[in-house]
Design goal:
The complex is a heterodimer. By secondary structure, chain A is an alpha+beta fold. Chain A contains eight helices and nine strands. Chain A is elongated, with a radius of gyration of 23 Å. By secondary structure, chain B is mostly helical. In chain B, the strands form three sheets. In chain B, strands 3-4-6 form a three-stranded parallel sheet, with helices on both faces. In chain B, helix 27 crosses helix 28. The two termini of chain B are 56 Å apart. Classes of the chains: A alpha+beta, B mainly alpha. At the A-B interface, helix 3, helix 6, helix 7 and strand 8 of A face helix 3, helix 7, helix 11, helix 16 and strand 8 of B. The structure holds zinc ion (2 copies).
């Protein structure tokens, strides 16, 4: 199957970090002859480059493989988390299911349902979708700049925003990232707060760039 | 070795190489790159410690230095040293290094504190997921160092790549430009990501490419910027964060954290202004006034200068010079009032060294305890007023030790504007420890003088700082700083730091003292000095000081502390009243920086700036001195 070949190519080339692989690695076993034909098809579609039997992904192939992997691992997550069955046991229905995810709307819904998961049950990374991206950047009413938090209050960093990207870079370089727990210890003479196991001191300008979601006022945030 | 500040890199470096480097727990003190030798199983290695680095994408000049070294290559393996309890945060750089195809070993340092915090890290799984060796260590105690050496010895680079997935827009842009970029020791993937973040060094590499290729790359970068409604950096950091979450999934277990009441309490009172300011004053009083001023400049100087030099060495040197050298001119070069041995060496060894030495002891203790970052946050608002951020506490405090060293350390400040302001203030209103020590000793019996001196110099500091901050264009600096936990200073570390700083001082400064006394000798012999003294005597008298003080000012030209020491001589002879002493110390403090500081200013900020400062400072010092004299007279005060 075309998808399987693309998935193999993604895991070997992109995640495995090889520059190219020999076509013989794909034309193996039972599926060998069929895979050989698929390789030719993919080359014709401009998804892969075939030079002296070395296979590599083209740009459009890269994109296609990335989405294929995303759908595959998302469906694995779905089966594992929601239906509580291991993907391997239902390899073929899952495969069929993956194809349904080609509809972007469904893919997005599933991803949201699962809370924009980062990994599949085998702990392999799920390529990011647009929905995950937007979710990370989303703002809501419970989010306030840290400079408005009361002393002793805590929450989760929702996002870091500031007009100048210099401040942003500094905060990010220190590891002050969305999703991290944060608690404000002190507002004066400088803002002192804890993120993870580290403590930081910043001035008011920097504190105003860190937006924090207060936990109590925001019980459910994800909407389906 | 690369890694964040505060991860105990220098301590580990010392353990690996057995040689010394200044060990620091304050961000940014490791300005210079330190190189040491290490031997494993008969094979020689050269270990290079880089300045603190948060990510592959540099923000400060210091980080840029480290990154440039990574770009240049020429290393067998890179040790990424992290603070084990902050692995979640620091693993970003590990992944970036791995993705860049750099041979890397992850060193989980300060493991003892992580364990104390209740963290348990599954190292084997971490190794498997990252595809690199991971070694836990406690650098300060030397734990895990042997194992680390074994791992370095048996290190085989792993050719598999490590892929971090970013947003589709970034991925596409990265793939488009990667093949167009020039080869470096970083993978083209990593280089392309840096290019997309418009990294200065990588853009420069690109600008050296053939025109059409460079234009294509810039085109892609611009298109990406238009496509995203946030900085590219954001996507990259988010991608790294996600990947970190995946790599660390299930690896870190946490047990209950032991609360440490005393440390938390101490921490609280240090950073609250109500208790913090009194504590600062106590530190200044006991650490600097009592220990440096009283013990260093008093007891030790009295012993060395009055006893050893005054009673034994000087008469001995004078006697033998007269016996051995028949020509008075050469006698004066070596001995007598301004000789290399009797003036240069005496000042350097008997007066300056004890003072600087005691200062460095106090500074090392303060630095090791983690007090400086807390002082930074306490004082940030005041410093903002003079155009600096709390970060400038380190060069400013160091300036009380040695202005020359402090001017070099202004490099750790973020913007050129901040560096310029700090340099000016260091040259003008921050007396170095040698000056301070002698001033404390001079004013020991007249608190009025001390108060006048402190008040005037602080006012000048604030006033000039305020003015320069308004005049020099640019925006106010940001203040951001990690607060390392308070630590009990270790005697061995304090000793290591103090001795290496004193060695630095001795090696750098002693030759300057000798040079200065040769210049003074030459000035006397050629008759230039008497003329200059006459000229200087005019403003000196104008501000109500005796002619002899002109000599102190002239000597101060060569070494600021030389001048104060000269003043000390004058006062010992009973030539100064209280008022005159106050005016003289103020004028001398504000007066030109010493030759060494002037040269460093030239090197760091350029000739124009150094000359500009000199031209401003000269009349300004006398103006302030004169005003103080006038005010004291008008108010009818005698100190
Ligand atoms: Zn999977
Ligand atoms: Zn999503």
């Amino acid at each position: 199957m075309k998808d399987e070949v693309l998935e193999i190519l993604w895991t070997k080339l992109v995640e495995g970090g090889l520059d190219s692989i020999g076509s013989e690695e794909i034309i193996l076993g039972e599926q060998g002859p069929a895979n050989g034909r698929i390789l030719k098809d993919l080359a014709e579609e401009g998804m892969i480059s075939l030079e002296e039997d070395r296979v590599n992904l083209t740009d459009s192939g890269f994109e296609e493989a990335r989405m294929t992997i995303r759908r595959h691992r998302l469906s694995e997550r779905l089966f594992n988390d929601v239906f509580e069955v291991y993907h391997e046991e239902f390899e073929s229905p899952a495969c069929r299911f993956e194809h349904m995810l080609i509809r972007p709307k469904l893919e997005k819904k599933i991803c949201e349902l699962l809370g924009h998961p980062k990994t599949c049950p085998h702990n392999r990374p799920i390529p990011v979708g647009e929905c995950c991206h937007r979710a990370e950047m989303r703002t809501d009413k419970a989010v306030v700049p840290m400079s408005k938090l009361r002393q002793g209050e805590s929450g989760v960093i929702a996002y870091v925003h500031t007009g100048d990207s210099d401040k942003l870079k500094k905060l990010m370089a220190m590891g002050i990232l969305p999703g991290e727990d944060v608690s404000l210890e002190r507002r004066f003479p400088s803002f002192v707060f804890r993120v993870g196991y580290s403590r930081f001191a910043v001035d008011e300008g920097m504190a105003a760039a860190i937006f924090v979601r207060r936990p109590a006022e925001n019980p459910t945030e994800e909407t389906l | 070795m690369v890694g964040n500040p505060n991860v105990g890199k220098s301590a580990l470096f010392n353990r690996l190489t057995g040689s010394y480097a200044v060990v620091s727990n304050y961000p940014g003190t490791t300005v210079a790159i330190t190189t040491g030798r290490m031997k494993i199983a008969g094979k020689d290695y050269s270990v290079v410690d880089t300045p603190g680095m948060y990510s592959l994408y540099p923000i400060t000049d210091e980080e840029r230095v480290g990154r440039r070294m990574l770009l240049d290559g020429g290393y067998e393996v890179v040790l990424h040293v992290v603070d084990a309890k902050n692995l979640t945060r620091m693993i970003h750089l590990t992944m970036q290094l791995k993705e860049a195809g750099i041979p890397v070993i992850l060193v989980l340092n300060i493991m003892d504190e992580a364990e104390e915090t209740g963290l348990v890290i599954d190292i084997e799984t971490l190794e498997k997921r990252l595809g690199i060796p991971v070694v836990p260590t406690v650098g300060i105690a030397g734990k895990g160092v042997r194992r680390l050496k074994e791992v370095i010895e048996n290190y085989r680079p792993d050719s598999r790549n490590f892929h971090v997935d970013f947003s589709l827009a970034v991925e596409k842009a990265s793939r488009e430009i990667a093949p167009l970029l020039p080869p470096t020791s970083l993978s083209s993937r990593a280089l392309s990501l840096l290019a997309l973040q418009e990294d200065r060094d990588v853009l420069e590499l690109i600008s050296r490419l053939p025109r059409d290729r460079a234009d294509r790359i810039i085109g892609v970068i611009d298109a990406l910027k238009r496509e995203l409604d946030h900085p590219v950096n954001y996507d990259i950091t988010m991608g790294l964060g996600r990947r970190a979450g995946q790599v660390l999934e299930g690896i870190i277990a946490k047990r209950e954290r032991k609360t440490r009441f005393t440390r938390d309490f101490l921490d609280r009172i240090l950073i609250s202004p109500w208790t913090g300011v009194p504590i600062l004053l106590l530190v200044l009083y006991f650490g600097f006034y009592k220990f440096v001023g009283g013990f260093g400049a008093g007891v030790v100087v009295d012993f060395l200068e009055g006893h050893i030099f005054g009673k034994y060495l000087i008469p001995f040197i004078n006697h033998w010079t007269e016996q051995l050298i028949p020509w008075p001119i050469l006698q004066n070069l070596i001995a007598e009032d301004y000789g290399v041995l009797t003036l240069g060496v005496r000042y350097a060894v008997a007066i300056i060294l004890p003072i600087v030495g005691t200062f460095f002891i106090v500074f090392s203790v303060v630095e090791d305890s983690g007090y400086l970052p807390r002082l930074s946050l306490l004082i940030d608002r005041v410093f903002k007023w003079v155009g600096l951020s709390g970060r400038a506490v380190i060069p400013m405090t160091l300036g009380f030790g040695c202005g020359t060293m402090a001017t070099v350390v202004t490099r750790t400040l973020e913007s050129t504007r901040e560096r310029v302001i700090a340099t000016i203030l260091l040259a003008l209103a921050i007396p170095c420890s040698a000056q301070l020590g002698v001033i404390f000793a001079l004013a020991a019996n007249s608190p009025g003088v001390l108060v006048t001196w402190i008040g005037t110099v602080s006012a000048v500091f604030l006033f000039i700082g305020y003015l320069t901050a308004r005049i020099i264009p640019g925006r106010q600096p940001d203040f951001f700083m990690e607060l390392p936990p308070l630590r009990m200073p270790r005697l061995a570390n304090v000793w290591l730091k103090t001795s290496s700083r004193m060695r630095w001082y001795f090696v750098e400064i002693l030759p300057l003292f000798l040079l200065a006394s040769v210049l003074i000798w030459a000035g006397n012999v050629t008759g230039i000095f008497p003329i200059l003294l006459k000229l200087l005597a005019v403003p000196t008298r104008a501000i109500g000081l005796p002619n002899e003080a002109a000599q102190a000012f002239l000597f101060g030209f060569f070494r600021r502390d030389y001048g104060v020491a000269g003043l000390y001589d004058i006062q010992q002879r009973g030539l100064l009243t209280g008022n005159q002493l106050a005016v003289a110390t103020i004028t001398l403090t504000l007066f030109l920086p010493c030759i060494a500081q002037f040269l460093v200013m030239m090197k760091e900020r350029g000739l124009k700036m150094a000359l500009g400062v000199a031209v401003f400072v000269f009349p300004f010092a006398f103006l302030v001195g004169g005003s103080v004299n006038f005010m004291l007279k008008v108010l009818g005060l005698t100190l």
